[in-house]
Every structure is written in structure tokens, then in C-alpha cells.
């Protein structure tokens, strides 16, 4: 029997119980309390309320000066679960559709293994972060003094990845997740009778032209060698067949991996809007929010992670980054480190993340625990 086997059944039970009682970003009070309780029972020094509901467990061994941060996110999504599982969410409109319940369980398991048999000399900070899903919980923890209070010379995070075979571990140097920007545009005219379009700026027509032009930005203004996405996802305007609406709202998202490309896309959007204003005699109000930067791995940390992953399971160099975003990016702006994917795919066409039929694959929990433990023992080797 290995050091992890006795922990798996209790950790799976904990994971499923957290799954049944999900909490949204900055409201993870019950989840945070359970994490703190397990960490204390494991013998760690525990700090709560960091960046709102964040928890940090501190484990010291030997006299080594090195420090490491291992991070797990713990918030759920505002989605109605449709798995029908025995541990399905009991909270209407809220469920762990991204596997953060599994991330919590794996990091707690690593804390238990390392507390019982450290085999390292230094300090590990187990970081349980709130509000990853669009609310910037990592930034909140940093602004609350995370790295001043808990110094981390290097920091790692692990996320389950349904697109990879179960147990496979992948990462890459440089960009691994995209910068996430969101935009909201309001096209304002006067409103008037649909039978008299010559008297009223047509905001619907202006919005239609805007959407067409925005969809040329990536193909015509971004170098072919760069990866970027611009998607219009919302159009709201009008309420009657015989009325030209006074305003139309258009919204969407931009994903990119290079700040220079990010700048170019935003500026090109502004240029297009100036043209729309002149062409249709409307006014355009533009709100562009760069809410998550690109997640960029430190090359040395990513190389180390791949080497260590190969001792735990099958390690892969990720061929390209994902356009989805991750607020671990804020931590990587502060400290060198890397973000890793843990394959959890099973069968053909497993439900993707953020899907109402998704559930974390408990079969990969042991691999995730082993990876966390190996990262700590490598970086803090005596």
C-alpha cells in the first residue's frame, strides 16, 4: 500500500460533499471552513480570510530557506447541474462545473502526504483561492498581501483537462492560457418610426455593420503567426416591429496571448467604432475591460514541471495554449511558476468544462496528489 491509498476514499467523499454544496466566488464560506479544518487536523498552520474567503496552509520542514506555493481554486459556477449523480448539487443554479472541488481535494491530499512524510527542507504554502471564475480572486489575495505574508519563490497550479486522456499531465513554457477581455458597446441614435428611416439614425443597421466589421479584425489586423479570438456574443435592441430603437447594445469577448496583439485589437475596434459613428450618424459608447491577463509560464518552471510529471505519469509538452482564461495569471505576474493540465478524459466525447453534464473524474485524484507532492519535494530538496 502506498502513502496515498489510505487517503483516497475520504478525499473522494470530501470532494463529492463539496460538489453537493457548491458556493460561488467570494461566497465560499463553508468550503473555506472545511478546508481550514482539514488543514488544522493535518497539523498545518492555517490562515483564513485572505482576499475575502481565501485560505493558506503553511507546512515547514527542516531548515531550508526555499519556499513554494501550490494553488487550488475553490469556487463553483452559476450553472444548473444535469448529471443526475448521487452527489449532484443541492443548490439551484450553482454547481462545480469546472472541477474546483477536485482541485481542493487533490491539494488537501498533498498537504496530508507531505505533513506525514515531508522528505523536503523548506516551506510549502498551500493556497486555496476564491473566485477564479471571472471575479479575480487571485488578484484579491495578492492585494491582501498574499506574497508578502507567504513568500513563494515559485508557484504552481493544476487544472483538470477533459480533452486530455485521464492521468496525462501537460504544460508548456510561455503562454498557456489566454488573456480575457470583454467589451460592451452601446450604439445610440434618437429612435423613431420605422416607416420614416430618413428621419432617424438606424441603430439596428449600424449594429449589423459593426458586427460584420468586428469579425474582420482577427483575419485582417492580427498577424497570421499570432493567436487571437474575437467573438460577438450579445446583441440587444428593439421592442416593436414599427419602431427604430434609440439604442442597441453589442457585447462579446477577446482572447489573446501577446500584449501587443491585445493592444492592436482594442485600437482597431475603436477605429471601427469611429467609422460607424460617422457612417450612421450615431454615437458609440465603448467599454473594454481587460479583466484577466494571459497566463504565461516561466520557462524554467515549466521545464521542471514536465520533468517531474514524467516521474508521476505520462508527461506531454502542450502544443499550443488554450484560448480560455485563468486568473492564476496574476500570480505568475508576481512570481515565477507554471500552470499545468491534468487529463481527466474518459470514454468518447467527455463533457467539457462548464458543461451541465460535467463531473470531476475521481480516478485521476491520485495522480494529481502525486504531482503536487513531487513538485514540492523537488523544489525543496534538502
Structure characteristics:
382 residues; alpha/beta; Aminopeptidase; Alpha-Beta Plaits; 16 strands; metal ion binding; Amidohydrolase; manganese; N-acetyldiaminopimelate deacetylase activity; Bact_exopeptidase_dim_dom
- How many β-strand runs? 16
The CA-CA distance between the termini, in Å, is 26 Å
Structural class of the secondary elements? Answer: alpha/beta
CATH uppermost class of the largest domain:
Alpha Beta
Number of domains: 2
Number of helices: 11
The description of the largest β-sheet is: 8 strands, mixed
Cα shape: elongated
Briefly note the CATH topology name of the largest domain: Aminopeptidase
**Overall mean pLDDT:** 96
Uncertain parts: none
| Oligomer class | single chain
Radius of gyration: 24 Å
User: Main sheet: which strands, in order across?
Assistant: 1-2-4-3-5-16-6-15
Order of helices and strands: HHEEEHEHHEEEEEHHEEEHEEHEHEH
CATH homologous superfamily assignment of the largest domain: Zn peptidases
Percent helix among the residues?
25-40%
What does this structure look like?
Mn(2+) binds at residues 98, 100, 133, 159, 354. GO terms for molecular function: metal ion binding; N-acetyldiaminopimelate deacetylase activity. Keywords: Hydrolase, Manganese, Metal-binding. This is Hydrolase. One of its GO terms (biological process) is diaminopimelate biosynthetic process. This protein is of the alpha/beta class and 382 residues long. The protein has 2 domains: 5-176 and 295-379, 3-Layer(aba) Sandwich (Aminopeptidase); 179-292, Alpha-Beta Plaits. Helix content is 34%, strand content 28%. The protein has 11 helices and 16 strands. The chain has helices at 5-20, 29-42, 100-116, 137-143, 146-149, 203-214, 217-221, 259-280, 299-310, 328-334, 365-379, and strands at 45-50, 54-61, 67-73, 122-129, 154-165, 169-171, 174-177, 179-188, 192-193, 228-237, 243-244, 247-256, 283-292, 295-297, 315-317, 337-345. The strands form 4 sheets. Strands 1-2-4-3-5-16-6-15 form an 8-stranded mixed beta sheet, with helices on both faces. A 4-stranded antiparallel beta sheet has the order 10-12-8-13. It has a two-stranded antiparallel sheet with strand order 7-14. α3 links the parallel β3 and β4 (122-129). α1 packs antiparallel against α3 (100-116) and α6 (203-214) runs antiparallel to α8 (259-280). The protein is elongated and about 80 Å long. It starts with a helix and ends with a helix. The model has no long low-confidence stretch (mean pLDDT 96).
Amino acid at each position: 500500500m502506498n502513502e496515498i491509498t489510505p487517503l483516497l476514499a475520504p478525499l473522494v467523499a470530501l470532494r463529492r460533499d463539496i460538489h453537493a454544496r457548491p458556493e460561488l466566488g467570494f461566497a465560499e464560506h463553508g468550503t473555506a471552513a472545511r478546508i481550514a479544518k482539514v488543514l488544522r487536523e493535518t497539523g498545518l498552520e492555517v490562515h483564513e480570510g485572505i482576499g475575502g474567503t481565501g485560505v493558506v496552509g503553511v507546512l515547514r520542514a527542516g531548515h531550508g530557506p526555499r519556499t513554494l506555493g501550490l494553488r487550488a481554486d475553490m469556487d463553483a459556477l452559476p450553472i444548473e447541474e444535469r448529471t443526475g449523480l448521487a452527489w449532484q448539487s443541492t443548490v439551484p443554479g450553482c454547481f462545480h462545473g469546472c472541477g474546483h472541488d477536485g482541485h481542493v481535494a487533490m491539494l488537501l491530499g498533498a498537504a496530508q502526504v507531505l505533513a506525514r512524510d515531508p522528505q523536503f527542507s523548506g516551506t510549502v504554502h498551500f493556497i486555496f483561492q476564491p473566485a477564479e471564475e471571472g471575479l479575480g480572486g487571485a488578484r484579491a489575495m495578492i492585494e491582501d498581501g498574499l506574497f508578502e505574508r507567504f513568500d513563494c519563490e515559485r508557484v504552481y497550479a493544476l487544472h483538470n483537462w477533459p480533452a486530455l486522456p485521464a492521468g496525462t499531465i501537460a504544460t508548456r513554457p510561455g503562454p498557456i492560457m489566454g488573456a480575457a477581455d470583454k467589451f460592451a458597446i452601446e450604439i445610440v441614435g434618437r429612435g423613431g418610426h420605422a416607416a420614416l428611416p430618413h428621419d432617424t439614425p438606424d441603430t439596428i443597421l449600424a449594429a449589423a455593420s459593426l458586427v460584420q466589421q468586428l469579425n474582420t479584425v482577427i483575419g485582417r489586423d492580427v498577424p497570421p503567426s499570432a493567436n487571437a479570438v474575437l467573438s460577438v456574443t450579445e446583441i440587444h435592441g428593439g421592442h416593436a416591429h414599427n419602431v427604430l430603437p434609440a439604442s442597441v447594445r453589442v457585447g462579446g469577448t477577446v482572447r489573446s496571448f501577446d500584449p501587443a496583439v491585445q493592444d492592436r485589437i482594442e485600437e482597431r475596434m475603436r477605429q471601427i467604432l469611429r467609422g460607424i459613428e460617422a457612417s450612421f450618424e450615431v454615437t458609440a459608447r465603448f467599454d473594454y475591460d481587460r479583466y484577466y491577463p494571459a497566463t504565461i509560464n516561466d520557462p524554467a518552471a515549466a521545464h521542471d514541471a514536465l520533468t517531474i510529471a514524467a516521474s508521476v505519469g505520462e508527461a506531454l509538452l502542450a502544443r499550443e495554449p488554450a484560448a480560455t482564461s485563468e486568473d492564476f495569471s496574476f500570480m505568475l505576474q508576481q512570481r515565477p511558476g507554471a500552470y499545468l493540465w491534468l487529463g481527466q478524459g474518459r470514454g468518447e466525447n467527455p463533457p467539457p468544462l462548464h458543461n451541465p453534464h460535467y463531473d470531476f473524474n475521481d480516478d485521476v485524484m491520485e495522480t494529481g496528489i502525486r504531482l503536487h507532492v513531487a513538485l514540492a519535494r523537488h523544489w525543496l530538496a534538502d
